[in-house]
Design brief:
Shape: globular
Number of strands: 4
Number of helices: 12
Distance between the termini: 16 Å
Mean pLDDT: 85
Radius of gyration: 20 Å
Order of helices and strands: HHEEHHHHHHHEEHHH
Low-confidence stretches: 1-5
Structural class: mainly alpha
Number of domains: 1
């Protein structure tokens, strides 16, 4: 996992990162309060944040939370990079590369494997998106996939690191903490979007979903598993665990240890909640026909990380 110089955080940067993480925690707690009000049907979250040009342009809460997630994650990475004495210009250029590639990857993954809720739009297969470019580039209401964002963003940073000879794994460890913080906040966009819900439930935390946004076969049910809430809390825990590892276990970590923990956590989150999902794309042909695309991706990610860390461990034992 990473050496002390790589992992440890100076006192000033530690305080700044802690301030951001406590802010993320407070954000999640406030969101839980709003969710509790919604469950009690005291308040219905609006999808539209506000409109411009006499209603011609609508800005959605989903987009707002995505932007906030990017800003908070970037703030964490910037503080860690400053602690490492990195050049600011190189840092900001690299983050731009990562965000652009990440956005493209997130959208491509989504349109390649569209979920069942896209059927009312006339989307049955990924190729249908390419026949309607107005839908292909419309992401205000959603349409991004986490695995695509991670693979695309990782590729962007890989290319940038190769171009400027940057320490790839050191940077990946910084980005892992930033991504975890951003995801803990970003998932709350689904609260307003009513997009990331699971199977019907009678539990007290059941999430009331407007009939318009339910799958056709679930219109008779009213409350569903709030997967977005579970995912947000899970990533908040991962966020604090990564900070703890970086701060107090830096001598036992090697470069790449932080990003390995993060990626394994993302895969574990997917596999833990997989049986709760109802709006997930499935493969329709081949060896894994009927399997969730996200589950297969998560299993593959666990395998790759396991082989990688196994090789690192074997090298240390020589």
């Amino acid at each position: 996992m990473c050496g002390a110089k790589h992992g440890s955080v100076s006192l000033v940067v530690r305080k700044r990162v802690l301030l951001i993480l406590w802010g993320v925690t407070a954000w999640v707690l406030i969101g839980i309060g709003l969710f509790a009000m919604h469950v009690a049907e005291l308040w219905i979250p609006p999808r539209v944040m506000f409109t411009l040009f006499s209603g011609e342009l609508e800005l959605y809460w989903y987009s707002f939370f995505i932007v906030c997630a990017i800003l908070l994650g970037t703030a964490v990475v910037v503080q860690l990079a400053k602690d490492g004495g990195e050049d600011r210009q190189i840092m900001w250029r690299g983050l731009t590369w990562m965000l652009v590639f990440g956005f493209i990857g997130a959208r491509l993954f989504y349109v390649t494997f569209p979920p069942p809720t896209d059927l009312p739009l006339g989307i049955e297969r990924g190729v249908d998106y390419w026949r309607n470019l107005s839908l292909l580039f419309s992401v205000r209401l959603g349409g991004l996939r986490l695995f695509g964002a991670l693979f695309g963003g990782g590729l962007g940073w890989l290319l940038y690191s190769y171009r400027f000879r940057l320490p790839l794994l050191v940077w990946f460890d910084r980005l892992a903490l930033g991504c975890a913080a951003g995801l803990a906040v970003g998932y709350w966009g689904h609260f307003f979007n009513q997009g990331l819900y699971g199977r019907p439930t009678n539990m007290f935390w059941g999430w009331p979903i407007t009939e318009l946004y339910r799958l056709p076969e679930l219109t008779t049910f009213e409350r569903f598993q709030p997967i977005f809430l579970f995912a947000s809390l899970f990533m908040l825990l991962v966020c604090w665990c990564l900070f703890w590892l970086r701060q107090y276990r830096s001598e036992q970590m090697r470069p790449g240890g932080g990003v390995a923990v993060f990626l394994l956590s993302v895969a574990l989150k997917q596999l833990l909640f997989s049986r709760l999902f109802v709006n997930t794309p499935l493969l329709v042909a081949g060896l894994f026909a009927g399997w969730s695309v996200n589950d297969i991706t998560a299993i593959g990610l666990v395998f790759v990380i396991g082989v990688w860390q196994g090789a690192v461990f074997a090298q240390l034992m020589r």
